Amino acid sequence: MKAIVVEHQAAGTAGMTLVDRPEPLAAINDVVVQVHASGFVPTELEWPSTWADRRDRDRTPSIPGHELAGVVTALGYGTTGLSLGQRVFGLADWHRDGTLAEYVAMEARNLAPLPGDVDFAVGASLPISGLTAWQGLFQHGRLQAGQSVIAHGAAGAVGSMVTQLAREAGAYVIGTGRAADRQKAIDFGANAFVDLENDTLEDVGRVDLVFDVIGGDIQKRSTALIRPGGTLVTAVGPAEARPVDGLVIDFVVESDRAQLSEIVQRVRDGRLRTNIGKVARLDEAIAAFNSGERRAGKTVIRVRP
Ligand SMILES: NC(=O)c1ccc[n+]([C@@H]2O[C@H](COP(=O)([O-])OP(=O)(O)OC[C@H]3O[C@@H](n4cnc5c(N)ncnc54)[C@H](OP(=O)(O)O)[C@@H]3O)[C@@H](O)[C@H]2O)c1
């Protein structure tokens, strides 16, 4: 099968190569999925899991990409809940070969059914950004209707999901980002917008929940904006700052079939809009990741035409 591999961390996305690899086999509780569309987060080349297994042994050359939508082509021993030929989407294990490939083997529990009327490219754009937003807002942030939320990077892949889900849940959403992102954040439902390069973040006052995808100084300053009893959830930990009165939670997204189904149902009925910036083929993927252009949302790789 065709797959993109990485071998040297220092080379970054420029070190990606398109090669032929043996098709993966389904282990216990696995399925093999024929990948139709794949999603990739550029920062994953900085994650230890891209380079080493759970015992910290070198696992290169490794296949990056951890989101996918596709069709089940094989079932491992003991696998239940999914069937051959079923359309699925989900989040692959960080420590195993990923989805920038024609086939991937992964645990069935990390996948959810993809309804027939949802395009594979849309399905592949949802798992990381949708689940990260869902888990940060509702599991870790315990968001309630009527609360106020700062959604950092509100025009980005995760931030646009945070903005929409928080609004739907009845929150008041203050999006942040660069000046050029104001209209996009408002279009995704932000009630207000802070241009982090020209406005003063502190002017927004105290909020119940900060959803951080930026880190560094912005994260540190944001901890002072949490109301007593409020929470800052960050997807770009480790959180260096400690809050004055509230709680700081670093988290890494996990797959969850029920949450994936909630998310895709919202896409079908129009409550949630995807934020796909670019769609490229597998043989264009390396160029797409190295274009030097500013990303305008999620990059999706259409592995099968
Ligand atoms: N822990 C987890 O489970 C998890 C899950 C998903 C994502 N993440 C992490 O979350 C981060 C965001 O992911 P994403 O896919 O949403 O990325 P993205 O699509 O690039 O969105 C980030 C947004 O924030 C903006 N931004 C970043 N720094 C900024 C700054 N200093 N001032 C103003 N705007 C700024 C970006 O603008 P520019 O493009 O102009 O910088 C972009 O619009 C990444 O670091 C990713 O690795 C973590």
From TrEMBL:
Highest taxon listed in the record's lineage: Bacteria
InterPro entries in the cross-refs: ADH-like_C, ADH-like_N, ER, GroES-like_sf, NAD(P)-bd_dom_sf, YIM1/Zinc_Alcohol_DH_Fams
GO MF assignments: oxidoreductase activity
Transmembrane segment boundaries: none
Domain (Enoyl reductase (ER)) ranges: 12-301
Family annotation (SUPFAM superfamilies): GroES-like (SSF50129), NAD(P)-binding Rossmann-fold domains (SSF51735)
Protein name (database record): NADP-dependent oxidoreductase
Organism, scientific name: Mesorhizobium atlanticum
